[in-house]
Amino acid sequence: MKTTSTKYTTVYPHNEENTDIDTASKNNYLANTKIFGDGIRETSTSGIGSSGWNGDYSCFPALYGPFAYRGGGFWISANAGLFAFGRTNGDSSHNYGFRPVVVCI
Questions:
Q1: Cβ atoms of residues 49 and 57 within 8 Å
Q2: Which of 60, 58, 55 is nearest to 19 (CA)?
């Protein structure tokens, strides 16, 4: 498992020992309370469930879903949206949306 960030990847602190995937998502969200700028802490209150802005789905990466996707899956219906994010194993899928992000500095 990769433990350090590089130019192309960001590795977030994680706390996943002896838990189910939803508990691991909550623990990982809490372990990253000081990281801002990626749109996760800014738009979600708990990192699990419909806790994003406008009721969008949010599920912090954990265990066998260590990657994040943006936009929400089409199957989430009302919970998918601009601020939605979830966990995935990294496989490609027709289920996931995509939202481009523009940052003006």
A1: yes
A2: 60
- pTM of the full structure: 0.71
| DSSP state for residue 75 in the 8-state scheme | G
**CA 52 centroid distance within chain:** 11
Give the range of the structural domain holding residue 53, as residue numbers without chain letter.
1-105
Instruction: Write out pLDDT tens, residues 26-56.
Output: 888 888 887 777 778 788 888 888 888 888 8
Residue 68 and residue 87 in contact, taking contact as beta carbons nearer than 8 Å: yes
Q: How many residues does the chain have?
A: 105
Residue 82 identity (one-letter amino acid):
L
CA dist 79 and 56 (Å) reads: 4
Number of domains in the chain: 1
CA angle 21/100/90 to nearest 5° reads 35
Torsion of CA 7, 101, 65, 44, to 10 degrees: 120
Q: What is the dihedral of CA 38, 43, 45, 50, to 10 degrees?
A: -120
